[in-house]
Every structure is written in C-alpha cells, then in structure tokens.
C-alpha cells in the first residue's frame, strides 16, 4: 500500500484555526476572527462590567500590600495613600489613552502596535509584554492555589493539618501543591469561554473580592479592639528625600498598572457604548487601588498588634489566622475570604495575563493561534516553570521582572502619542491587515524606525539605574539611580515626547503632524475583499457566526456614496 506524502503546508492545514465561513480575506497570514474588528453582537461590556474589570484588577493582593511597602520606604500613611491615589489616576489615564482605539475601531492592542511599530515591529511589543505575563501568570496561579488551600483548610480539618510529603527541594508543600492543581484545573476550564462572555465572572468577582476586603478589614480591626496604631517606618528622612520618595511611590503604582493599561483596547473593543469604559478608567482605577491599599495598611497594622508579625499579603494573613486560631468563627470567615481571593485570582489572571496574551499572540500567527490556544499555551508555560520558586526564593530574576516597567512605560507612551498626536485618532484599518508596501503601516520592511528609535533613547536613560537595581553595577551615580526610581515618568512622558518630536520632523505615512494633506477616513470600521478596500459604516452588523457578508457591505458602500454625492 502506497502511503501518500503530505507536504508541510498540507500537514499544517489540519492545525489551523480556520472556521466555517472564513474566507481568504478574513483568514490569512495577518488575519483571523480574533484580530478583526469585534462585530456588534459581541459588544456587550457595560459600565458595570468595566467596574468589575477594574475592581478585580485593583483590589488584589498586590494593591493590599502597596501602602504598607511605601510606608516601609519612609512615607507616612497619609503620604503613601496620596501617592497611590495619584499613581492610580495616572494608570487610569494610560488606560483611557490606550483603550480608545478599542472604543472607536473595536480593535485591540495588537492593531495599535501594528499601526505604531509596523507589521513586524508589533511582534517586538507583543513578545516584550508576553514574556513578563507568562511569569506573572504562573505567580498568580500560585497565589490562587494558596487561596484554594485556605478554602479547603476551612472545610476539612484533616487538610488544614496535613503533613508535608514533598522534599525541601520542591520549594512547595503538599497542601499548597494540591491547592495549585485545583486552581489550574478550574482556571483552564474557564479559558474556553470567549472574552465577550466573561463579564458575569467579573461581576461575581467584583462582589466577592469587595466583601472579602471589607470582611478581612473589619475582622482585623475588631479583633484588635478598635483602630490600631498604624505601621510607621523606622527610617528618618528629610523633606527633600521625602518628596522624591513620594514621586517614587507614584511612579511605582503607575508603572505597576501600566502593564495592563497598555492592553486596555483588548477589552474596550467589547464595549457596548463608547462611554462604558471611560468612568471606570478615570475613577475606577485610582479608587479601587487606593481603597485596597488603605484597607491593607489598617489590617496589616492590626495584625501586627495582635500577632507581633508584619503580614503584608492578605492570603498569608488568613493562613496565619487559621494556623493560630482554628475556631469555627475563624474558619467561616477565612472560608469566604479565601473564596473571594480565589475568584479574584481567577479574574485577574484572565483579564491581565492569559486571555489578554491569547488575544495578542493570535495576531502573530493568526492561522494557528486563536485566543483559546494562546491562553492555554501561556498557562502551560506558566505552570512548568514552577512559579512558587520565584515567590519562595526571590532573587535577581524577580528584581528584573519588577523593574520591567522601564521597558513597558515607553511602549505605552509611544503608542498613545502615535494614536492621539501623530495620527489624531485616524486609522486606515484595511492597511492593518496588509503585509506589504501597499500598507501605510509597512514602513521600512515592516518596521517603524521612528518608534524604535524613541524607545531606545528612553530606555537607555534608565538602563544604568536598572543595572544598579539588579546588582550588576553597584557604583552607579546617584543621578542614574534617581532616574530609574521614577522610571514611569521618564518612560511614558519621555517616550511620548521623543516620538512626537521625531514624527514632527519626519512624519510617518498617515501621520497628521506635517503640513501634508491626507485623505480622510470617515468610517469607523474597514474590511478588505480581494484587494479592494470595502468601507463599512459603524452600524454594520456581522452575522451571528462572525462572518462578513461582503455583498451587503458593497451595497451599503454604494448607498453611502450616493448619499455623499
């Protein structure tokens, strides 16, 4: 029997993500359904859904410990909370600036990166973000596993006092590993839900984590007999140094949340109305982060008065309460608290790591990767790296990851400047799916040298301080250290200014900063059919299957042309 030979392209056809109804125009080297404009029937995220998004992202273990860590750095409680409020507002502003393409064009972060850095240049931006998200996805899974352990410990006393059967070299004990596996199983199942249908989970998480924070805060204050003496720093610093550390705290908060804010268009493209995301971006971010930090400061202070130890992480605090006070009341309280944090870790990991990265990876290999496949790949990698080792044995690598804001903030600033200043909110959408010189986003061999030059110039300024922070250059001058410590201001503002200046003197194709006249782009969403640009008005509806009826599109275009003439 003769076995037929399959060429590599024929073999790969079996693993593509092409769906029924896809055409060569909606499924090719640069396009699949996950990177095309979101059809109207999938735009269902309301103001309340975005509130859930920001509360899930803002009221988490990181925000809880932010206030206490800034107090330890020399600030008073009031100064720390003020810095967090300002930093939260700045991160919300970045979310608004980077989220508007999703509102106007229903396109995500990869398309914003293509328009700014070029068709191939967008790969650099996406991989820069993906590298960090893989590690943080694993770490968030580990924290979610610890929350699952708390829930199980409250239900089963035998589990709460289970003996460890793993060697010390594993860097994790048996109950923690069981909780981690349970989290991974539940989390992986949720990855098969389309992003447009995640809002019920976000709302449940919104309610759950809000009740958890209030309950844990009330328990710590009540058990301590009232308002505790707030944690105070042992450091004595002058007014000038205090002012700088205030700026450093602002930069730290803004930089910490800019990593998710830069991807905001991945989610605003699902907005039901243009106003749905705005209030939560401008107000939801600073309020949720600040409230979580204030609760964290008071609860940590109360716990220190009660137990004599400083426990900044709320999940560790609940575990400590269970270990030292395994009563029915403590078990009931920690059960609901652990459940709230479990839901929070699910939501945070979905919207900020796995699903977001899945959306972005689908733009790099759209024939073979969709949102689900990209998300699954991230979880697999995030699991096999043994994320608990990064938490339990922190070293230079974690310091590097924590400092990655110096690389991301310039990307956000350059993207925002390109969309708002250079292009004045105008995109030629069909060109975002053309990988040759006929696209205005092809630039030079698929790379926009202006964006890369601006990024290098900004990162270079912070690099000596970065080497100092990771221990590679202990003798760096104080000025370089200072620049690195406020790297968000340097990166975001510097990237925006330098890129805008370069484009003023050498405007990119489609740029509006020069005196050159450009054809207007009056419609909201464009598609391509057989090399022709078919412009669709903002009221055009895709079919329920997601396919685009091009004959209807042409008829609509003809009607619009008659109306204009």
TrEMBL record:
<feature type="transmembrane region" description="Helical">
    <location>
        <begin position="201"/>
        <end position="224"/>
    </location>
</feature>
<feature type="transmembrane region" description="Helical">
    <location>
        <begin position="177"/>
        <end position="194"/>
    </location>
</feature>
<keyword id="KW-0812">Transmembrane</keyword>
<feature type="transmembrane region" description="Helical">
    <location>
        <begin position="244"/>
        <end position="262"/>
    </location>
</feature>
<feature type="region of interest" description="Disordered">
    <location>
        <begin position="545"/>
        <end position="565"/>
    </location>
</feature>
<dbReference type="GO" id="GO:0005886">
    <property type="term" value="C:plasma membrane"/>
</dbReference>
<feature type="transmembrane region" description="Helical">
    <location>
        <begin position="397"/>
        <end position="420"/>
    </location>
</feature>
<feature type="transmembrane region" description="Helical">
    <location>
        <begin position="282"/>
        <end position="303"/>
    </location>
</feature>
<feature type="transmembrane region" description="Helical">
    <location>
        <begin position="77"/>
        <end position="97"/>
    </location>
</feature>
<dbReference type="GO" id="GO:0015205">
    <property type="term" value="F:nucleobase transmembrane transporter activity"/>
</dbReference>
<feature type="transmembrane region" description="Helical">
    <location>
        <begin position="371"/>
        <end position="391"/>
    </location>
</feature>
<dbReference type="InterPro" id="IPR001248">
    <property type="entry name" value="Pur-cyt_permease"/>
</dbReference>
<feature type="transmembrane region" description="Helical">
    <location>
        <begin position="483"/>
        <end position="505"/>
    </location>
</feature>
<feature type="compositionally biased region" description="Basic and acidic residues">
    <location>
        <begin position="552"/>
        <end position="565"/>
    </location>
</feature>
<dbReference type="InterPro" id="IPR045225">
    <property type="entry name" value="Uracil/uridine/allantoin_perm"/>
</dbReference>
<feature type="transmembrane region" description="Helical">
    <location>
        <begin position="440"/>
        <end position="463"/>
    </location>
</feature>
<keyword id="KW-0472">Membrane</keyword>
<comment type="similarity">
    <text>Belongs to the purine-cytosine permease (2.A.39) family.</text>
</comment>
<keyword id="KW-1133">Transmembrane helix</keyword>
<dbReference type="Pfam" id="PF02133">
    <property type="entry name" value="Transp_cyt_pur"/>
</dbReference>
<feature type="transmembrane region" description="Helical">
    <location>
        <begin position="146"/>
        <end position="165"/>
    </location>
</feature>
<feature type="transmembrane region" description="Helical">
    <location>
        <begin position="329"/>
        <end position="351"/>
    </location>
</feature>
<feature type="transmembrane region" description="Helical">
    <location>
        <begin position="117"/>
        <end position="139"/>
    </location>
</feature>
<protein>
    <submittedName>
        <fullName>Uncharacterized protein</fullName>
    </submittedName>
</protein>
